[in-house]
Write a structure and sequence with these properties.
Distance between the termini: 27 Å
Strand content: 25-35%
Number of domains: 1
Number of strands: 16
Protein name: Type I-B CRISPR-associated protein Cas7/Csh2
Pfam family, one: Cas_Cas7
Number of helices: 7
Helix content: 25-40%
């Protein structure tokens, strides 16, 4: 069984919409009081699942179409899984946990047959460190909106020039043990890889994000800090003028202090670091991995 661990990911989004709100004209989700942008756990886990699929892992929670081109429901997808694997209803939970990495780590809600798995690895909602501007953009597409039209279609969308985020995640070994879920160290290594590479590989005009630093604290025993918010980000200019990671410095001083105070409970701290970031107070006790 893998040891309990916590993660804190620092990442940014440039000239993009990190997480659109479909109920609000697909504007970037934001806190109207503070002006900070928000990103749901679902959005982050989608990056991870997409990357897992490209790595060759089986992923259960995904959009799949049937032979008629219609998106399958959860019930239809599970029925297909059972038929292909030739498993009975009573055997389904064990089969899903064994075959699908996203079920082992994130859990799943199966509607029929009714079965809920609480994921031992939870990703929390993210907020931008900076107050981020939201802009309304318009332009002309290459094609007309229909036959006989004299003008091309006008497109419109909302974007944010720049937002720098912190995302917290935790793997709780007790949650896994209570449900009899066998999570290996390899499973969690695959999560770290997919978390980083998923943000890098799934970029577009609407999703233009880049991971900058991932801190992973692996504990010797069951222990959870609860937020791991021991990484500061200092800006070289006014926050309102923030447009690039070069204007920020990541300070690990508090994480070093946390390690010294809890050293007897911590097996290792891994720091995955992008080559473009400026980092201060990087301890020699940390294992540094550049990407």
């Amino acid at each position: 069984m893998a040891n309990t661990r916590e993660y804190l990911l620092i990442w940014d989004s440039t000239m993009a919409n990190p997480n659109g709100d479909m109920l609000n004209d697909n504007k970037p989700r934001h806190d109207e009081v503070t002006g900070q942008l928000e990103v749901s756990d679902v959005r982050i886990k989608r990056f991870v699942r997409d990357e897992w699929q490209s790595m060759g892992h089986n992923v259960l929670v995904r959009t799949k179409k049937d032979k008629d081109g219609k998106v399958m429901s959860c019930t239809s997808l599970i029925k297909e899984v059972m038929e292909k694997a030739k498993v009975k209803e009573a055997e389904l939970p064990l089969h899903l946990l064994k075959e699908y990495i996203d079920v082992r780590l994130f859990g799943a809600v199966i509607t029929k047959p009714k079965y809920d798995i609480t994921g031992p690895l939870q990703v929390m909602w993210s907020k931008s460190v900076n107050q981020a501007e939201i802009k309304f953009m318009q332009g002309n597409s290459a094609y007309a909106g229909g036959e006989g039209k004299n003008q091309s279609t006008i497109w419109s969308k909302y974007i944010s020039p720049y937002a720098l985020f912190k995302t917290y995640a935790v793997y709780n070994d007790n949650t896994a043990k209570r449900q009899g879920i066998e999570v290996s160290e390899k499973d969690l290594d695959e999560f770290s890889k997919a978390l980083i590479n998923g943000l890098i590989n799934y970029r577009s005009t609407s999703k233009n994000q880049m991971p900058r630093l991932l801190a992973e604290v692996v504990y010797k025993e069951h222990r959870i800090d609860g937020e791991l918010n021991y990484i500061d980000i200092n800006f070289d200019s006014d926050v309102e003028e923030l447009r690039d990671i070069s204007q920020a410095t990541i300070d690990l001083r508090k994480l070093c202090t946390y390690y010294k105070n809890k050293k007897e409970s911590i097996e290792t701290i891994r720091i995955y670091k992008h080559g473009s970031v400026k980092v201060e107070n990087l301890s020699d006790d940390f294992k540094v991995i550049e990407f």
